[in-house]
Amino acid sequence: MTIELRKSVSTRTTPITLVDRTSLPAVAARLPAATQRWLRSIDFVGAADRHVLLPDEQGQMAQVLAGIGDIDDPFALAALPGDLPPGDYRLSDDGLALDPAIAAHSWHMGSYAFDRYKPRRRTTARLLLPSGATARRGLAIAEALTLARDLINTPAEHLGPQELAGAAQALAKAHGARFKQIVSDELLKKNFPAIHAVGRASVRAPRLIELQWGKPSHPRVSIVGKGVCFDSGGLDIKGADGMRLMKKDMGGAANALGLAAMVMALKLPLRLQVLIPAVENAIAGNAYRPGDVLPTRAGLQIEIGNTDAEGRVILSDALAYAAESTPELIIDLATLTGAARIALGPQLPALFCRDMRTARTLVDLGLELQDPLWHMPLWAPYKAGIESSVGDIVNTGRNAMAGAINAALFLEYFVPPDQDWLHVDLFGWNDAPRAGRPVGGEAQTIRTLLAYLEQRFAGPAARG
Ligand code: BES
Ligand code: MN
Ligand code: ZN
Prior knowledge:
The protein is of the alpha/beta class. Helix 4 (133-153) packs antiparallel against helix 9, helix 7 (193-199) packs antiparallel against helix 10 and helix 9 crosses helix 14 (446-458). It contains 14 helices and 20 strands. Helices cover 32% and strands 20% of the residues. The strands form 4 sheets. Strands 7, 8, 9, 10, 11, 14, 15, 16 and 18 form a 9-stranded mixed β-sheet that branches. The protein has a 6-stranded mixed β-sheet with strand order 1-6-5-2-4-3, covered by helices on one side. A 3-stranded mixed β-sheet has the order 12-13-17. The chain has 2 domains: 3-124, 3-Layer(aba) Sandwich (Leucine Aminopeptidase, subunit E, domain 1); 139-463, Zn peptidases (Aminopeptidase). The protein has helices at 24-29, 33-41, 100-110, 133-153, 161-175, 186-189, 193-199, 240-243, 251-265, 311-324, 338-344, 356-369, 403-412, 446-458, and strands at residues 3-6, 14-19, 51-55, 61-67, 88-91, 126-130, 178-183, 207-213, 220-225, 227-231, 271-281, 293-295, 301-303, 329-334, 350-353, 374-375, 393-394, 421-425, 429-430, 440-441.
């Protein structure tokens, strides 16, 4: 483990003193004159994500001075664990005081590497923190984000629908949740025809994964995640560039499991349902085709304009099923459209919801927690653009415009009008590295959604 919560932390560990540009002079003034000259000569001024190792007179490591830009940054310490020499560290009392949740969270995230195939080049430094509810909360959240990243980073060869179900089952077991899955032709018998149609061309059987957790007396919340373990595009096959990252097309499912892990670890007073339609969008003689008209659980007939718009097709059955238990809230998370990425780029997932006030609350929370999302409209007049002449609706728009809105409007058909619902269209990937956020799979919006669930269902007391 790269972080440990202890009742008491030994003073034999190396202290890390947190400084910023304002507090550095006072800290430096307490150091030997030679050290002060050294800090000036290397131009260490306490800037964010820069640190300096200081020796004692015997040449042993005495302490670390680490620059912090924003004390509320959930990635405040993230640059340290990979850079510091291996060993045990603690936060010194001389420096800026960091919220233990942020300390635990940022250190754990800064230690992240996807090392399933390629071992780490060196051991990461270990932080010893006094244990307490706040530190435990920060760590629980970081562990959930790590789960989501690992699932996204795992190649499709090792994470098909069955392995995704295995990950959900393991999570259920860890938290005493119930796990169920409906596999292959059972999907037809139990009336999930759209999930079956998209997944039937793969030798890896499609399925609907379901977790249930929490007391029956608590408010119901359903979290739905798009679980396309690989998106080749189907018969409307993607080009090489477009297909390259499509192991991450289960990013919605990974984030749904990450959010569920947080809810369960922090024991929110919810009755949670997680639904993951898990498929591989593959090509074979029995693949669904452009022009096909497919029945859905909700009864609507959907015309396939393009087999690469598969996410909304499988989500239609999952959303219809989620609505059947009339939960207080349905949240769906999906790597649904390239159009959302064109509009907002990799760092800003698109949020769609019917209620403007809820959208504003979520956008504000996202900015505050540095886990942003941005509101886009369910622009009703564009529904005309997804009407079908042979079925009820078509899974592509009339043209290339407003692709993310078209997809969201398509989903909206499967959510009853009075059902509270949030739809998040996300990238699930860091395309450029930042401290604690290496290139690769990324959890997005789930810290914000956790805070929203706490605010709405657990009251302010539970947030701490
Ligand atoms: N999984 C993709 C969307 C995607 C692509 C997300 C790249 C993130 C990065 C989705 O299944 C898809 O292929 N959507 C098509 C829909 C189109 C055919 C209407 C798209 O966005 O191009
Ligand atoms: Mn696709
Ligand atoms: Zn897809």
